[in-house]
Amino acid sequence: MRAQFNPPSTLCLLTLLWVSLLITNQAHSADLVSQETALQYIPKAIAISLEKNQIPKEAISISVVEIEPGRPGKITAKTELDWRSKQAMNPASTMKLVTTLTSLDILGPQYRWRTNVYTDGLIRQGILKGNLYLQGTGDPKLIPEELTKMMKALQNLGIQKIDGNLFFDRSAYATNVMEHNTIDGESLRAYNVPPDPLLYAFRTLSFQLGKSRTADFIDISYTPPLSQLKVINQMLLVDQSCDSWKSNIRFNLDPEGSNANTDQLLTAQFSGSFPSSCKGVNYNVVALDANTFLTQGFAAAWELAGGTWTQAPIGKSGTVPLAARLLLQFEGIALADDVQDINKYSNNVMARQLMLTLALEKMGKPATTENGELVIQSWLKGLGLQFPELVIENGSGLSRNEAISAEHLNQLLVAARNLSIGDIFYNSLPIAGTDGTMRNRLMAHLRKFLHLKKKPEARIKTGSLADVRAISGYVMSKSGKMYAVTSFINHPNAWRGLEAHDQLLAWLLDDGPEPKHAR
Hints:
Elements: H1 10-39, H2 44-52, E1 60-68, E2 76-83, E3 88-89, H3 96-107, E4 112-119, E5 122-124, E6 127-129, E7 132-135, H4 144-155, E8 161-163, E9 166-169, E10 205-211, E11 218-223, E12 229-238, E13 249-254, E14 266-275, E15 281-285, H5 290-304, E16 308-309, E17 315-317, E18 325-334, H6 335-345, H7 348-363, H8 369-382, E19 404-405, H9 406-416, H10 422-427, H11 443-446, E20 457-465, E21 468-476, E22 482-490, H12 498-509
Parallel strand pairs: 6-8, 7-9, 8-16, 9-17, 12-14
Antiparallel strand pairs: 1-2, 1-22, 3-19, 4-7, 4-18, 5-6, 10-11, 10-15, 13-14, 20-21, 21-22
Helix pairs in contact: 2-12, 3-6, 3-7, 4-5, 7-8
């Protein structure tokens, strides 16, 4: 008797199909998890450095992606390393990358700030009889060289003497953004200078100290020139190491009752000792209010250009009167050059003013940091980038509150390569062993590649605060691969993390993510 074949029911077939799909999906999911896990590791040399410097692995985040070449606008990336990269972290000064890239793309590399000069008087026989009104828009690099050009432009209008005072219009910025608040209480340090629409020479007096070439005494000079500043040098030369030269210097700036409404002399007094082994150092201090500093700086620049005053000018805050006429619209340095300074030398106030410029240009005055953040967030959205953890307080990284993930900052680096200004942004970053804040880093490792025709390089923005160390930028490896790399350390021992970050960069220069490296 032949056995009878009973075909499976429809329900049985559906059950078998569901089980088959479930097994397949589980296998696929397991494969994805396996791939993801393979990327979540810390290379051995970095792990050893972290352990040696007592930095827990939970205090560091790392993102490394290989940027794969393609047509402009079609560059893609492949994740090579992902250690806690989605964690929101304090990025310190690497936040400047967000501010500078946004500004280059929105404003354009040739954007220039304008400082307008108005008068309520008339020019007759070479004399301007009336007041000058300076109206700023936040030029972050209005330095002595630029002020010299402004003086020349005023003289070209037929002015040799000024019979009037100075008024400073800072209406471009909201009052609160100009307040001198610090996160460390160091209000006299140059890195803490607040934004100012008429920021002159970073409002910083820079004294140059060094042993005289012709005698055993100390030469002291300073920049920028001020019209009423006298230096009193009471320092002694001592036979000591130059390592701690600053600790034995006593400095006092005595305004002698001087402010922006008087022409009394300022005295900068130096006393204490100075090591004879020092070849020349800079002593930087923020010691004058904004009006005094700009008044005396402007007066000195005018006098150095050959101009004269009927009497020493008084400088005050004030808005431009409706009846005043425009004498001069002075344009500063191009944005591309300013971005170089911001990224290579990590200039905080320049970055803050750049963010306020975004607000000023796109949302009008008075500029606020809140509006600057709105402009940046809108720009990111336009690129299809969603960074929900991003917190921008001032755009410079000089903040305890700013936050971003390593993954998202790396996404921004990749996006930059698809923008028309991508190369300008790339070239603004410090080069390891060459310039900026990376000048003295990785020098020994880079010597390994001197024999190569095309040498690898690391272009890296650095960041540091108490409890924070950060790096973000590009590495071109010895085999010609380009990596975007971002790493943050947030921990009380972060100051010891420089070695771990250098190990990470060295690993990439050596083509660390190659398959031959164990994971």
